[in-house]
Specification:
By secondary structure, this protein is mostly helical. It has nine helices and five strands; from the N terminus they run E-E-H-H-E-H-H-H-H-H-H-E-E-H. The protein has two domains: 147 residues, no CATH class; 90 residues, no CATH class. Strand 1 and strand 2 form a beta hairpin.
């Protein structure tokens, strides 16, 4: 495959740290469906006693989980936002995305959507509002809300905790150089999906969350990050990386060299093709 020199139209960083080029249309991985919609702890057949919100869930997934946990009609929790008094930062403009902190929450007998969402936001404020996060954000010339936004992208893009600091560094390096982030996780958020494929047409989406077309950070977080992702966002690993690709599970490669990145992408694409080949002795379909 012939590839040109890097430009804003060809560089592509993708979800879960897997990077490809727009021209390839290669398959990428998504995380939002990697966990079950609802995970609760219960005693026998009685009412659930707790609700688990995993790291990286979007707000809409949290709303659906609360509806199920409280046996409410679909959409009830989302509708409750209008009367929920959530202690959100001003920058959030009433949108709790990023502040529904992932944790296990008790389901008390009188639990309501409002009480659960408020508990999640207060937990996020405790985790994100302390001096270490505030100082870390200031040290990187941003406010806490921007740090949460970066953490949400790190949560979506990193293949594992060991890569989070490097993914955060790629984000900072690209922002500092005036490069678009070009990450599929932001497009998937705009389209409310978790897909294995992002097309060139997708990257032309007219949305403030299209980080292929828009410069800087998206206007809000794109998920609810955990503490590890936030630590990476305020203390990114030192390095000059601009590109990364998970060639295979456990093998994410970061580089500042575009030609090297192309070779890594080619290896990733070949691995994807090999996985799709029929098993030995099985006819091709």
């Amino acid at each position: 495959m012939q590839m040109n020199t890097p430009s804003r139209s060809t560089i592509r960083l993708t979800r879960r740290g897997r990077a490809v080029l727009i021209a390839t249309g290669a398959v990428v991985a998504a995380t939002a469906v990697a966990v079950p919609l609802l995970s609760v702890e219960s005693e026998g057949d009685t009412r659930p006693t707790s609700l688990l919100i995993p790291e990286g869930w979007r707000s809409i997934q949290v709303y659906e989980a609360v509806d199920k946990a409280l046996a409410l009609p679909a959409g009830s929790t989302k509708k409750s936002l209008g009367k929920a008094r959530l202690n959100l930062p001003n920058d959030a403009e009433g949108n709790p995305e990023g502040y529904l902190f992932p944790a296990t929450y008790p389901l008390k007998e009188k639990a309501t959507p409002e009480s659960l969402l408020s508990f999640m936001v207060e937990t996020a404020n405790q985790k994100f509002g302390g001096a270490p996060v505030t100082a870390g954000a200031q040290r990187n010339s941003m406010n806490v809300y921007q740090a949460v936004t970066i953490a949400s992208i790190v949560q979506a893009e990193a293949a594992g905790k060991q890569d989070m600091g490097k993914v955060a560094r790629v984000i900072f390096n690209r922002l500092e150089r005036g490069m678009p982030l070009q990450m599929d996780s932001t497009i998937n958020y705009a389209l409310n999906r978790a897909t294995l494929t992002t097309t060139a047409a997708d990257t032309r989406l007219n949305s403030p969350y299209n980080s292929f077309q828009r410069m800087g950070l998206p206007p809000t977080p794109i998920a609810n990050p955990g503490e590890e992702a936030m630590r990476a966002a305020i203390n990114p690993t030192q390095g000059d990386w601009l590109y990364f690709v998970t060639v295979k599970p456990g093998d994410t490669r970061f580089t500042a060299d575009y030609a090297e990145h192309q070779r890594n992408v080619a290896e990733f694409n070949q691995n994807q093709k090999n996985q799709k080949k029929p098993e030995s002795g099985q006819p091709a379909r």
